[in-house]
């Protein structure tokens, strides 16, 4: 499960997308800022950090009804384990359709930072956030 | 905010996920060439691979874990979103046992941001 700790997953955005559109972000995501901070902390260890953007697309998402309520009310709607299991097994078989997962070509974080060395940390995080959204 | 990867809960979780996905999904397609590329990268001891998916659904986290497990790739640690995830005790405990850390991202408190950065450092180191 953990051989030499080579794989980490970090979600780009802070909240689930509510409108279904991938607009270019106007500010940098926190996760990108955190990743860049930890990269600068780990420079002395000479690790190659490769970013692999992952695209997951669904025909239908599981919590569509909850999302619709959240969009209308603006409040996060929570549910318990029993409701979760009821929702899963009440659904007809194969209701969510097909799921596609695609791995984009990797980006070497060190090279990326060197290529845009004139930018400050905030500008760099915004640039990386936008580049990742465009992939 | 901690997690622990352990074998038995992981096996149990993936057995459950297999049942749930086979019930809910028609098909699950993934990019095998991309996965092969990732495996090649991950085989180098000096390379760390960071998956950066866009968070669209609660299922994203489980699908990423399931594909890593199914393709015989290391599970690694996952940093989820605490604010935007269902707070179900049993599920949270299982997620912790398969290496998921639910972090608060928009705290605005510098000390907590430092802690979160340390967690990411530790997972990459």
* String of helices and strands of chain B: HEHEHEHEH
Mean pLDDT of chain B: 81
Number of strands of chain B: 4
Number of helical segments of chain A?
A: 5
Task: State the shape of chain A.
Answer: elongated
- Main sheet of chain A, how many strands, which sense, barrel? 3 strands, antiparallel
Describe the structure.
The complex is a heterodimer of chains A (135) and B (125). Chain A is of the alpha+beta class. Chain A has two domains: 1-59 and 101-135, no CATH class; 60-97, no CATH class. Chain A has helices spanning 30-41, 64-73, 81-90, 109-115, 121-134; strands at 7-10, 48-58, 97-103, 107-108. The model of chain B has no long low-confidence stretch (mean pLDDT 81). At the A-B interface, strand 1, helix 1, strand 2, helix 3 and strand 3 of A face helix 1, strand 1, helix 2, strand 2 and helix 3 of B. Strand 1 (7-10) of chain A pairs parallel with strand 2 of chain B, so a sheet runs across the interface.
SSE topology:
The complex is a heterodimer of chains A (135) and B (125).
Chain A: E1 7-10, H1 30-41, E2 48-58, H2 64-73, H3 81-90, E3 97-103, E4 107-108, H4 109-115, H5 121-134
Antiparallel strand pairs in A: 2-3, 2-4
Chain B: H1 7-24, E1 25-30, H2 32-42, E2 47-53, H3 59-70, E3 77-81, H4 89-97, E4 100-103, H5 110-124
Parallel strand pairs in B: 3-4
In short:
With about 140 residues, chain A is α+β, with helices and mostly antiparallel strands.
Which descriptors would you attach to this protein?
heterodimer, A: 135 residues, alpha+beta, 2 domains, 3-stranded antiparallel sheet, 5 helices, B: 125 residues, two-stranded parallel ribbon, 4 strands, 18% strand
């Amino acid at each position: 499960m953990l051989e030499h700790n080579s794989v980490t997953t970090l979600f780009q955005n802070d909240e689930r997308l509510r409108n279904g559109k991938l607009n270019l972000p106007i500010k940098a995501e926190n996760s990108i800022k955190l990743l860049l901070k930890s990269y600068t902390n780990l420079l002395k260890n000479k690790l190659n950090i490769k970013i692999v953007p992952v695209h997951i697309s669904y025909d239908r998402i599981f919590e569509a009804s909850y999302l619709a309520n959240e969009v209308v009310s603006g409040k996060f709607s929570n549910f318990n384990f029993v409701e979760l299991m009821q929702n899963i097994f009440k659904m007809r078989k194969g209701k969510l359709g097909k799921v596609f997962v695609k791995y984009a070509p990797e980006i070497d974080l060190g090279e990326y930072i060197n290529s845009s060395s004139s930018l400050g940390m905030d500008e760099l995080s915004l640039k990386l956030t936008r580049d990742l959204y465009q992939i | 905010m901690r997690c622990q990867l352990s074998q038995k809960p992981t096996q149990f979780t993936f057995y459950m996920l297999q049942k749930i996905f086979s019930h809910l999904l028609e098909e699950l397609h993934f990019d095998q060439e991309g996965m092969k590329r990732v495996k090649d990268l991950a085989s180098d001891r000096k390379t760390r691979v960071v998956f950066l998916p866009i968070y669209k659904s609660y299922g994203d986290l489980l699908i990423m874990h399931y594909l890593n497990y199914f393709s015989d790739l290391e599970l690694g640690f996952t940093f989820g979103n605490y604010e935007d995830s269902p707070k179900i005790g049993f599920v949270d405990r299982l997620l912790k046992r398969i290496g998921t850390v639910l972090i608060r991202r928009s705290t605005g408190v510098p000390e907590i941001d430092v802690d979160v950065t340390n967690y990411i450092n530790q997972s990459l180191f």
